[in-house]
Amino acid sequence: MHSEIKTKISDITFIGSGISSSFTILHFLDLIEDQKTDRQIDINIIDKSGEFHTGIPYGSRSGFSVHLITSLKNFLPEPELSKFIVWLNDNKSWLLDELKNDGGSLSLDWLSTHDQKIRNNEWEDLFIPRRFFGSYIDQKVKTRLEKFESKGVINVTYIKGEVVDLDKKDEKYTLFLKDKQTIISDKVVLSVGSLPVNHLWKNESLIEEDNLLFINDPYLPELKEVLKRINKFLDKRSNKKANVLIVGANASGLEMLYKLNDVEEIKSQINKFIFLSTQGLLPDAVVDEERRKDYVPFNLQALNDSSSLTAKTIAEAAYKDLDHADEINLGAASTVEIVSKAFGSLLGKLDQKELKEFACHYGNEIGRRQRCAGFHYSKTVDELKEEQHFDHIAGRFSTIKKNSDGVYSLEYLDTKSGENKIYQDDINIVLNCVGSTNLTKNDIPVLLKNMIEKGYCKSNDSKIGFEVNESLESHENLHIAGPLLAGNIFEGKAVWHLEHCGRIIWLSHVLSEKIKDYFFENSELKERPIR
Question: Could you report the per-residue pLDDT of 183-242, keeping only the tens digit for each?
Fold first, then answer.
């Protein structure tokens, strides 16, 4: 496996090497294991970070001590779950050492709390560090690729680089990299993960000024480096404690809060943590087993006998049932499975047009009200509340203002009143965790912008996904994988959230079948792939 190539023709090129492309490669290899080949299939795998098969969530950019947002059994479906657990049992010694090295006091607390379960290999209910899974998938893909390469079935080339443009000519794609390298490929899989973060303030990943550190992307270049930058900024304040604003009450926001409290040198220099989110609510962590037994989604159930339904009708019923749960103070952790099952059973009654409407407009909206998190995250919040070091504002970020004394304050649009307000305390550190931009904006990656302008890709109505056919193609032999498939229908199922590992695995199966059919007829490798 080589690190660089010169311009040459390959059979298939993966742009991005996160878990969507990784599972696609694994399933493709499974499908061709018993096929007859008289020549190698040339595969390129490109990643701009140089870290392959993990993506941001499961690799070094997130570190070794941030956790899954769900329990392991809800994260990974069978049969992959059982395979992963066997691997965990065999590798837990060095994995736990890495966690201890990367983490701080909260990581040690997590290890202590779950020591007995870990000793007994009882992983299913744990919210394990995400990097454990990243290490597993990385090892698994590389081992499988090496096996097939040693047999002469495939030739794999790893390329560290950023693809900035592509052109199709004579049934082949030419990929242009930022470093001026070019690659020619018969088939391309675009698997670049989620769209980049939406910059809230100034068009830079990190802005440092006197009395203010504003971080638009906490994972660039990686979380560990950002934490070092925060620590250095705090050290320069001459023991004057700082207030930290986290914009966005989602998984990333909770991770940032957790890590800032995990690193003692940082935590000791912070006075208050402030969350800003539209609803003013954090993801729920505690399941009320008794009360959930009595919770019934009456509004959704009332639609069971309806012969004609619309996406809007189902969504409005779901909102009413979620409103009722809020009124009785029953959190999302207790109701998410019940509500999801109730509206999921109704989606089969929608025609294709309405199902598409649900995938593009309503699925994510409902999902935003069903956010859950692990107890290790909510415990951190509860402890900060008890110490009176935590605040949560219901509103939207407007701007950061600097007064004549050089002190910065938050201006936000208050959710309840609809008016602009100034938060009472000064702000020293801001972490932007509001989520991604969308495909209608100018700040999308240059590759996507060029592909849209050339007509190779077209945004669907979700604004976060591309329109594709049943072969997951946005253009002939140009496949889309991962989160950019949001807002589509596959095998009669609406897809609106492609950061869920179960859905990623399912769609990687679909894509790998299409790729296999392109290269093979029956069990024979086609002399020339059908264009």
Answer: 999 999 999 999 998 899 998 999 999 999 999 999 999 999 999 999 999 999 877 999
CA angle 66, 75, 114 (to 5 degrees): 55
Using CA atoms, how far residue 303 sits from 298, 299, 306, 308, 353, in Å, is: 9, 7, 5, 9, 19
Long-range contacts of 115-121, Cβ-Cβ distance < 8 Å, separation of 24 or more? 118/92, 121/85, 121/88, 121/89, 121/92
CA distances from 111 to 15, 57, 104, 254, 264 (A): 37, 21, 11, 19, 17
Q: What does each C-alpha distance from 98 to 92, 132, 452 come to in angstroms?
A: 10, 10, 42
Query: Residues with Cβ < 8 Å from 69, sequence gap 6 or more?
Result: 127, 251, 254, 283, 372, 373, 374
Dist CA 319 CA 486 (whole Å): 21
Hey, what are 81's tokens?
């779950």
Q: What are phi and psi of 524, to 5 degrees?
A: -100, 135
- In the chain, the N- to C-terminal Cα span, in Å, equals 28
Distance CA 57, CA 376 (A): 18
Q: What is the pLDDT of residue 1?
A: 40
Integer Cα distance of 162 and 405 in angstroms: 43
Per DSSP, the three-state class of 71 is: coil
Give the Cα separation of 251 and 497 in Å (integer).
Answer: 14
pLDDT in tens, 309-362: 999 999 999 999 999 999 999 999 999 999 999 999 999 999 999 999 999 999
Kindly state the greatest CA–CA separation across the chain: 75
Contact predicate 279/252, CB 8 Å: no
Give the mean model confidence (pLDDT) for residues 296-300: 97
CB 55 within 8 A of CB 194: no
* Crossing angle for the helix pair 130-150 and 80-102, to the nearest 10 degrees: 120
Q: Please report the pLDDT score of residue 6 as a whole number.
A: 52
Query: How does 257-290 read in b/e, with b if 16+ C-beta sit within 10 Å?
Result: bbbbbbbeebbebbebbbbbbbeebbbbbebbee
Closest C-alpha to 195, from 485, 468, 522, 526: 485
